[in-house]
Design goal:
Largest sheet: 8 strands, antiparallel
Radius of gyration: 19 Å
Strand content: 25-35%
Number of strands: 8
C-alpha cells in the first residue's frame, strides 16, 4: 500500500513539473474574428497616436491580425528595438501597452523567419521574443520569451521563459 501511495505522489510531482513547463498555446486563447466594418483610427484616443499616425493608419489598412478584432502594428525604433500599437477595429481606439513601447528584440527561435512578436488573428495570445520595455531600464534586462494575454485594453503576463542572449540570434 505504501508503494502505491508513493508511486501516486511521485506521479503527481511529474505531472505538476510538466504543467509548470508547458508553453501557452494560441488555441488556448482563441476568439472569433470580427467581420464587420472597421472604424477609422482615432488619433485622439492615445497621447502618442498622432506621432505615429502614418504607421497606425497603414497598419490598420492591412486588416485584423490580432485577438479577433485588433490590428497590431509594429515599427522599428533603432537597432534591436521595436515599438508597437494596437488598434481596435470596432472603435478605432489606439492602445500603446507599456510592454511594447520601445521593447528590446532578441530572437529565441530555431526558425530563421521568426518575428519579435508572434500573434494570430484568432487568438488573444502575444509572444514577445527579447525583453519588454518594462525591463529596459534595467542594466541587465530579463531576456527570454514573454507570453501575454490581451485583455482588451492591456496586456497580462501569462508566462515568462528565461533565455540567455547566447541562446538566441
Amino acid at each position: 500500500m505504501k508503494k502505491i501511495i508513493l508511486s501516486f505522489i511521485i506521479g503527481l510531482l511529474f505531472v505538476g513539473a510538466a504543467a509548470a513547463q508547458s508553453v501557452p498555446r494560441f488555441q488556448d486563447y482563441s476568439v472569433p474574428v470580427y467581420k464587420g466594418k472597421r472604424a477609422p483610427v482615432t488619433l485622439k484616443s492615445a497621447r502618442a497616436a498622432g506621432t505615429f499616425r502614418t504607421r497606425l493608419r497603414e497598419g490598420a489598412g492591412k486588416g485584423i491580425n490580432f485577438a479577433g478584432r485588433y490590428m497590431l502594428v509594429a515599427w522599428g525604433c533603432g537597432t534591436g528595438c521595436l515599438d508597437a500599437g494596437i488598434i481596435d477595429a470596432k472603435t478605432g481606439t489606439v492602445y500603446f501597452p507599456r510592454e511594447l513601447a520601445a521593447f528590446g528584440v532578441w530572437y529565441f527561435s530555431d526558425n530563421p523567419n521568426a518575428e519579435a512578436l508572434d500573434f494570430k488573428p484568432n487568438s488573444r495570445l502575444l509572444v514577445l521574443s527579447g525583453w519588454p520595455a518594462t525591463e529596459a531600464d534595467s542594466d541587465n534586462p530579463k531576456t527570454g520569451l514573454y507570453y501575454y494575454e490581451w485583455m482588451g485594453t492591456r496586456l497580462r503576463l501569462v508566462k515568462y521563459i528565461a533565455k540567455k542572449r547566447e541562446e538566441g540570434r
